[in-house]
Amino acid sequence: MSTPTPARTPWRAVLGGSAGNLVEWYDWFVYASFATYFASAFFPKGNATAQLMNTAGIFAVGFLMRPVGGWVLGRYADRRGRKAALTLTVTLMSGSALLIAVAPTYASVGYLGAVVLLVARLMQGLSVGGEYAASATYLTEATPPGRRGFASSFQYVSMTAGQLLGLGLQIVLQRTMTEEALKSYGWRIPFIVGALCAAVILYLRRGLLETDVYAAEAKGSPAVRHERGTVRELMRHRREAALVIALTAGGTLAYYTFTTYLTKYLSNTAGLPKTTASLVSFCALLVFALLQPLAGALSDRIGRRPLLIGFGVGGTVGTVPLLIALGHVSGFWPAFGLMLAGLVIVTGYTSINAVVKAELFPTHVRALGVALPYAISNALFGGTAEYVALWFKKSGAESGFFWYVAACAAVSLVVYVRMRETRDAAMSRRELATEAAPARTSGPRMPGSLRRVRTGP
């Protein structure tokens, strides 16, 4: 059995398809990383943990909107095209960032400011719910066989770059402004920056070309065109949809634990200064971003399942001791080393999860098939991660959250062990006709598992 022959990577498509993730996730994570500064602006004075729980609750509500975004924009991407969906999602994110930047405070209008914040988060949830699938399908379809794992890994490179941009700006503001100034007006600056960056990405995305795979599908029979992006058609692939939900649960929870929540954890539990906690996260995330293409390229050679299984094992046995140790660190280097260890484990999931999901579905329902089940799982596990963690902390049983993360990783591990390898899936009939390598299978076949051709009903 031979490995797929690598072809040239279409860098323009990769950069265009993934660049929007930077802005989308910059705005998404800026909310989380600056919450410690604006929490008091939208809620009455009182316990700092309670204020953070309120803002974390709104953060989680944004995730609850993601299934709606996955359904609406996933359908839009399957019916109108990947490029159209990518353009729409970044437009929505720009508007939501601007809305947060001008939101009034509790001192001036009471809870109305929190309502504005909630509306903006709902818009962000709608946008991100569609962006993930549109980007995943575009990157997968626009890249030749043998390079898809590598190309799709740039989705998390750009997502992490968005976090780095937000954390970098936070570090700069922390060193140039007083804490009082940050809580008063400085927290608005990153949201203004996000709106401006989105305008630039919108201009870039207007020059993208539609993928050949989707363009060929769009010329199909009237019956196929009528069923594109419908929930009814997705239900014909319900086993694949259930697989997406299951394989996402542990990965997304671990990802948000070791990225967005960890900065607060280092500050609130370990007692590190906010500036040190932010610097630790910035440096660890920078290395994490560099690891994604390496892991993605590795999956093109050895398959997707080995990386997913590696994450499942590491997440199951490593989460609890890592988080316990992180809660007792006293300086930059120990915190950096432990956080990076967690992110290395998570890389087994993040680097390839997008391409695995895209490889499970046929073209005419691929975006919806990736978007809706992923968004549901993300809302249930990723979106609630920070809130659940803070709830455990407030209840005096913080370590319970660590075991919760490990248990979810263990459930996903069972799925990874049983699922079929997806690396050799053909994205189009043309690929199937020209592909010389035989289908590669690794592990037992699940009922309704991947068929060789992922186009047409």
From TrEMBL:
Residues 13-424 form the Major facilitator superfamily (MFS) profile domain. Residues 430-457 are annotated as: Disordered. It is found in: Cell membrane. It is a multi-pass membrane protein. One of its GO terms (cellular component) is plasma membrane. The keyword Translocase does not apply. PROSITE patterns: MFS, SUGAR_TRANSPORT_1, SUGAR_TRANSPORT_2. May be a proton symporter involved in the uptake of osmolytes such as proline and glycine betaine. Belongs to the major facilitator superfamily. Metabolite:H+ Symporter (MHS) family (TC 2.A.1.6) family. This is Putative proline/betaine transporter. It comes from Actinomadura harenae. The lineage of its organism: Bacteria, Bacillati, Actinomycetota, Actinomycetes, Streptosporangiales.
